[in-house]
Amino acid sequence: MNLTLCYHHISPWRRLYATTPETFARHLELLRGAGWTLLGFDEFAEHSRKPSRARTALVSFDDGHADNWLHAAPVLAAHEAAAVMFLISGDVDEGAVRERGDEGLAPGASEDDPVRIRWSEVEQWAATGSLSVQTHTHRHRDWVRDTGNVSQRAAGLRADLDASIAAITARIGTPPRSLAWPWGRSDPALREVAAGCGIGWQFSVIPGVDQGPLRPDALLHRVPADGLDANGFARMLERYRYRPLALARSRMRRRLSPGSR
Question: What predicted TM-score, i.e. pTM, was given to this entire model?
Answer without folding.
Answer: 0.94
